[in-house]
Amino acid sequence: MKYRTMGKLGFQSSAFGLGCMRFNGAASGDSVIDEQKAISLIRRAIDGGVTYLDTAYVYLDKTSEIVLGKALQDGYRDRVTIATKMPMEYVHNRAEMEALLESELKKLQTDHIDFYLMHGINREKWEYFKSIGAPEFFNDMRAAGKIRFRCFSFHGPYEDFEYIINDWDWDMVQIQYNFMDIGNQAGTRGLELAGRKGIPVVIMEGLLGGRLAKAPGNVQALYDAFPVRRTPVEWAFRWLCNHPEVSVVLSGCNEAEQIDDNLRIFDSVEAGIMSEAELKLMDDVRSAYFSRTRIGCTGCRYCMPCPNGVSIPDIFSVWNNVSLYETDPRGNWDLRRIRENSQGADHCIGCGACEAACPQHLSIIDSLQQAWKELTAE
Ligand SMILES: NC(=O)c1ccc[n+]([C@@H]2O[C@H](COP(=O)([O-])OP(=O)(O)OC[C@H]3O[C@@H](n4cnc5c(N)ncnc54)[C@H](OP(=O)(O)O)[C@@H]3O)[C@@H](O)[C@H]2O)c1
Known about the structure:
- This protein is about 45% helix and about 15% strand.
- The protein contains 16 helices and ten strands.
- The protein has an eight-stranded parallel beta barrel with strand order 3-4-5-6-7-8-9-10, surrounded by five helices. Strands 1-2 form a two-stranded antiparallel sheet.
- NADP nicotinamide-adenine-dinucleotide phosphate binds near residues 205 and 233.
- NADP nicotinamide-adenine-dinucleotide phosphate binds next to strand 6, strand 10 and helix 11.
């Protein structure tokens, strides 16, 4: 495992940080997470050298922090730093912020949180957090030793990012970044701005929720033609770690093989190691992807649950995958399951709750109709 400096904080962290948002059930499609499996994955990562773990109050129906807390018993807590988050929707005043933080400490079975983040903010949400006294609360909790670092995770346009990062004395930022998102959200400009300020950057969605792990035909052909053979996951993480401003790359892993693979990859990736030819390859790969993607849904599931039961991210995932892999939707098992469970876009009533929650600001209602038309055409 390579360790990287956390910007102005000075200490080192594992380059690979385990995201605790995507643990799944014992069987494919299970909605209840397999706790023992998740605990063993977390400990496997820590035993392999991971020192950074990311969770949030809302992840996995509010069970992610509980599972992480259990995994960190038996001496594991002392070996890692924990990042968790305060969601805007659950706090309206100081008393509620205090109660929420206390509940997180209890679920995590710890007396302090290392990185405490205002969750998924843009400029509007930052103004809200300021209006309820969140910055003062974070300062007070730091003084009380309940949190160590005051941070935010970001989803929004670059201009919002620039405003927020310059508006307070932040200790760390978490942004969505990968070789497809150089001009999206905080993007490369945001990454470099944080770097200039000495603020450590933690990366989320480095594989776009797993989409970059499976290269479609025209992308795989580019990888195959390159003299050095690497997996798509390796290329994606290598590209991220090539940036000196990146401190930690989060990845949510559901299988031991993925943990082991990522441990292997993060054993050798370092800032500035990519050659001109490698960087050119990634530019070509990006262009090849953009020529195929139907919608930029990352499967973060912030839009869920849909009040009418529409399985929004799953429909978009099928739509993208069918396009990326040129497969026949009639043979798609995920689509069949969506239809059998009455979770199709034909149940959408256009209420817009999903669009208000989407960190990617997608036109979900129109896209659902288009996707459904194409996916169900006979
Ligand atoms: N604060 C926020 O607003 C926010 C938003 C999003 C995420 N996050 C955090 O960031 C973390 C990382 O985000 P993410 O889960 O979207 O990360 P990601 O790395 O973009 O995607 C994770 C997915 O990539 C696939 N994967 C990972 N390693 C692999 C490997 N070696 N080989 C093949 N496939 C691999 C898995 O997909 P399959 O399951 O398909 O196999 C996994 O579920 C989350 O867990 C969460 O903690 C925060």
